[in-house]
């Protein structure tokens, strides 16, 4: 028996309610399905052929996916389905959008996986898929309706949207609003200060306790701030902007540090968005460059940072010191020279000893 969580029409979980696969959902109650569009770094898309014993057997679909099991987040479901149906293990997935099909009592959450896997390494799932192939954008758009199960994924990929010729191609879907992220620059006088300290102390990253202690002892003074990423009143992540970091006896300043993204918000470029928000604030207070300290490899380069130094941290581990110019604004008000590369694996980054 497969159990699902129950959601309302806005993909908010309904506490105390469980759905059973095969049983009709009550009116106004939805279950979650996650789809993953797979695009190779060479630009081709992965198609999977449905097993002949399944509904629409023999047809092709441009996504791997399925229903979220009870207790799974959208990201967890998408990663599991991708691995089961293709053998691709994704370190990150980018959420593209959410749509609701009222007639099916289903909310679909669409993700994109960009991979450089070997093209002949795809693994078929017994009873689910029988074949696979890689196709170009033009080949995908030229497929007929009796070949391709759904065109839903075309609603979310810019280079595929030209294949949507009419409202009928869009299917019976209504957009579902995603998170409403707000970014705030906190001082100890702000009402969110103590709540964020409590969150940091109890989050899954050990260094959060260090931040909580510093916040309660009011270590942040003058222009220094704690940056809060908040989704409709819920903490999604945080970072700091301060004059110093964990490396002593260096002249570099200011720093972005203590960067943490909550588990359910990873894979959505939130690290980059917090860094950009913090950088814009630092520009407002007169800085033209920003630094950060990390021992991660090939992560912050994607955000426009360059390694300028390496120093031993007080706990005996070498750390890289990164620098990035604070982005200027172009006349249209958009960031010039910002970071638009593939997002990194959004894990906590330890800038200070936990």
TrEMBL record:
It comes from the Bacteria. Residues 329-354 are annotated as: Disordered. It holds the Pfam family Acetyltransf_1. Residues 181-333 form the N-acetyltransferase domain. It comes from Candidatus Eisenbergiella pullistercoris. Residues 343-354 have a biased composition (Basic and acidic residues). GO terms for molecular function: acyltransferase activity, transferring groups other than amino-acyl groups; hydrolase activity. This is GNAT family N-acetyltransferase.
């Amino acid at each position: 028996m497969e159990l699902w969580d129950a959601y309302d029409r806005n993909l908010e979980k309904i506490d105390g309610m469980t759905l059973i696969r095969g049983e009709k959902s009550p009116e106004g109650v939805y279950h979650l399905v996650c789809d993953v569009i797979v695009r190779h770094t060479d630009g081709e898309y992965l198609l999977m052929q449905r097993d002949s014993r399944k509904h629409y057997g023999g047809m092709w679909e441009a996504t791997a996916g399925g229903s979220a099991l009870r207790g799974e987040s959208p990201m967890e479901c998408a990663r599991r389905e991708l691995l089961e149906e293709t053998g691709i293990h994704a370190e990150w997935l980018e959420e593209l959008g959410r749509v609701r099909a009222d007639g099916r009592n289903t909310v679909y959450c669409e993700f994109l996986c960009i991979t450089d896997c070997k093209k002949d390494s795809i693994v078929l799932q017994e009873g689910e898929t029988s074949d696979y192939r890689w196709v170009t954008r033009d080949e995908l758009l030229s497929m007929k309706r009796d070949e391709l199960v759904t065109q839903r994924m075309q609603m979310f990929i810019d280079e595929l949207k030209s294949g949507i010729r009419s409202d009928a191609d869009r299917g019976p879907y209504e957009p579902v609003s995603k998170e409403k992220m707000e970014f705030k620059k906190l001082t100890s006088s702000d009402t969110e200060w103590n709540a964020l300290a409590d969150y940091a102390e109890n989050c899954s990253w050990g260094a959060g306790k260090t931040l909580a202690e510093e916040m309660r002892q009011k270590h942040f003074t003058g222009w220094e701030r704690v940056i809060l990423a908040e989704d409709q009143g819920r903490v999604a992540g945080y970072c700091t902007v301060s004059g110093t970091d964990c490396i002593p006896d260096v002249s570099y300043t200011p720093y972005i540090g203590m960067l943490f993204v909550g588990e359910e918000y990873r894979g959505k470029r939130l690290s980059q968005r917090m860094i950009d928000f913090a950088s814009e604030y630092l520009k407002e207070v007169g800085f033209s460059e920003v630094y950060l300290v990390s021992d991660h490899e090939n992560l912050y380069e994607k955000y426009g940072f360059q390694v300028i130094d390496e120093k031993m941290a007080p706990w005996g581990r070498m750390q890289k010191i990164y620098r990035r110019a604070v982005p200027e604004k172009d006349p249209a008000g958009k960031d010039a020279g910002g970071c638009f590369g593939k997002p990194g694996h959004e894990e906590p980054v330890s800038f200070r000893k936990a």
